[in-house]
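Predict the 3D structure for this chain.
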Amino acid sequence: MFSRPPNLSLLTHNAFSGLPFPDNHFDFVYQRLIASNHTVDEWKIIVKELIRVTKKDGWIELVEMDGVICGGGRATKSLSSASKYRARACGLSGEKIDMFNNHTSDGSSA
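Done. Predicted structure below.
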């Protein structure tokens, strides 16, 4: 059975409501699989909040899918097309969006 290290907590919160932690609180922040659900403007809010709660020398890990499906059949290709349509509808371009280049090291907008 998996035993969680005593210094590990797994938490779920809504970045749009403001994360309930002080500035520079975490060494490591992990977020995954939400890019296709938000517009570019919403991403800016999320990333700014993640930067705010992460220590200056800390790490933020964002895990997202790139949308490239290799070797899929007809149904998979249809799903891929629908996903790309959804991304465009949310204002995402399909190109990689580097949100961190738009922020200074203190988390404020550049």
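Residues 22-94 form one domain.
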